[in-house]
């Protein structure tokens, strides 16, 4: 192998990345899902490299009421240039694999990363402009309210939950970048040809998984603003509150632990969809703790918002101190949940 040449596994991976990008031209790159009680089946906005798709007309109709601009493919310059840029990168990946030059691979990597940063910045600006530049004569105006969708992840917008995530094309694009980064690492760490026989597919998938996985932390209650996801009452007392983070990263807030349990019991929230449940510490209203680490007390003297009369304590001594002054009994979360 020459000093500036690439190994065969690296050239094969680069060729695969070029094929990924060709496929990206024909499938959605990003999607924004909207969930609301009046749309149980959900609404979806699909973003292709050259157009908008999905429930565009319905979303435009809803946006009109809150003063947002309607979405039209012809209004975006990006849909004109993006297919050409993706095509150029697809050709570049195949060309680097064909010409077998290490320097070209490094130039391609920095160009690809730079484009990704610029593209996500442009997408964020697009969301910001559409979420903040509102018509002052709109039918529905909420003072101080903006409707910018999340760049990635979940965000509550009035009674709509907006979930933004790459679609198949976006995952292919990210995979091309992750595999390209892996090629650089593999190239730099290779000393002998025998080391190139490592299972590159498994390592590449691990890198992609590490790059795309993310954790979601509980969101503090916005008193007087947040509504209970079950009973829709405005949350004003955080001491009985609870939160659910789903496997998709969505956050549901409750004014009473009983509301959370009722929604699960009625099948509106599936246990299989729950990543973590958090509960407010009755003794420290600013603390949200994983429910399995909490101690639960049931007492008629608690007077919780929806009548479950259950409070949680992070510290067992705090529960005992309350129980001494008030009647009540400690209960097991597993018995309530199962």
Could you characterize the architecture of this molecule?
The mean pLDDT is 83. It contains nine helices and twelve strands. α4 (102-132) runs antiparallel to α5. Helix content is 41%, strand content 20%. The protein has helices at 8-24, 56-66, 78-99, 102-132, 168-189, 200-212, 257-265, 316-325, 333-337, and strands at residues 30-36, 39-47, 52-54, 153-157, 160-166, 242-246, 251-254, 274-281, 284-290, 295-298, 310-313, 329-331.
The rounded Rg comes to 25 Å
Give the overall form. Answer: globular
Helix and strand content put the structural class at alpha+beta
Number of domain units: 2
| Order of the strands making up the biggest sheet | 3-2-1-5-4
Cα-to-Cα separation, first versus last residue = 62 Å
Number of helices: 9
Q: Average pLDDT across residues?
A: 83
Number of beta strands:
12
How would a crystallographer describe the biggest sheet? 5 strands, antiparallel
Helix content range of the residues, please?
Answer: 40-55%
Q: What are the segments in which pLDDT stays under 50 over at least 5 consecutive residues?
A: none
